């Protein structure tokens, strides 16, 4: 069964580009550069295109030892501009089939708001497994300016709080930072990310950014055509883990405007493919 901690976090790249089940490294997080978290550059944020994307999810591969024999479903990801912040929403409807013949149907709704200075964050996660509530999370988090420590407070499933280490970033700020590194041709980026997608807290994410790929010319979609993109591989590690291998890895093609054109998630014994089926622009805030 997929790791409970690994929602397919597209936001964790909005991680935009920021829930599949809790889901790039090629080395441990400590091996890459760690700097105080900087505020996103305005030039990077100005190029972001608010959008709604629909992806078809399916099993990409499975080892002989894998208990998962099939994965099918859809994912909707929405990234919008709310003037004072960014909002994201992810909705999943997935069916897992196991070697023993059992099936699991998962429905997840994950919504967030993140201040544009990267210091405040709100999240709401609700996950159903076979029609019954499996997880229901809600809360908010704050970070001190200049890459300082922070705190997350949960109001669901019960009131609790946890400290966030210095250098922590929220998902949208993380995605913008990846785009900044890509533009500056800096291939390695490692940071602790808090997205509220599970009650276990923050995750260390190590990213390797490939060379810019030629813009697509085989489409008339204005959100895809003539958009420079980069291959990005991310590895997700439990916070403070000494493990040499990640819990899971994600490979994406991230466009300059924040659209994730394709995505593959590798859980080790099986991998899931996400194919972009539909893409539509959302209105800019006009602020």
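^ Assign residues to that structure.
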């Amino acid at each position: 069964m997929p790791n409970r901690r690994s929602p397919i976090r597209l936001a964790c790249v909005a991680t935009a580009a920021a829930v599949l089940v809790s889901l790039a490294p090629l080395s441990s997080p400590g091996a890459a550069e760690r700097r105080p978290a900087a505020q996103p550059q305005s030039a990077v944020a100005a190029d972001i295109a608010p959008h709604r994307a629909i992806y078809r999810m399916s099993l990409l591969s499975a080892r002989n030892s894998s208990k998962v024999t099939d994965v099918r479903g859809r994912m909707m990801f929405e990234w919008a501009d709310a003037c004072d912040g960014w909002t994201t929403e992810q909705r999943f409807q997935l069916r897992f089939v196991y070697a023993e013949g059992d099936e699991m149907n998962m429905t997840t709704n994950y919504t967030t708001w993140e201040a544009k200075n990267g210091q405040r964050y709100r999240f709401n996660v609700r996950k159903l497994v076979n029609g019954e509530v499996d997880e229901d999370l809600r809360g908010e988090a704050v970070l001190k300016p200049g890459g300082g420590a922070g705190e997350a407070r949960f109001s669901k499933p019960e009131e609790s709080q946890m400290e966030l280490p210095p250098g922590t970033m929220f998902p949208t700020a993380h995605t913008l930072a990846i785009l900044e590194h890509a533009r500056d041709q800096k291939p390695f980026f490692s940071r602790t990310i808090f997205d509220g997608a599970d009650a276990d807290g923050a995750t260390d994410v190590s990213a390797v950014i490939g060379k810019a790929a030629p813009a697509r010319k085989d489409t008339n979609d204005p959100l895809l055509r003539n958009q420079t993109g980069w291959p990005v591989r991310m590895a997700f590690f439990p916070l403070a883990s000494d493990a040499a291998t990640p819990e899971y890895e994600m490979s994406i093609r991230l466009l300059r405007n924040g659209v994730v054109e394709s995505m593959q998630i590798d859980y080790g014994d099986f991998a899931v493919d996400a194919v972009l089926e539909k893409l539509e622009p959302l209105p800019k805030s006009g602020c």
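The longest strand covers residues 68-81.
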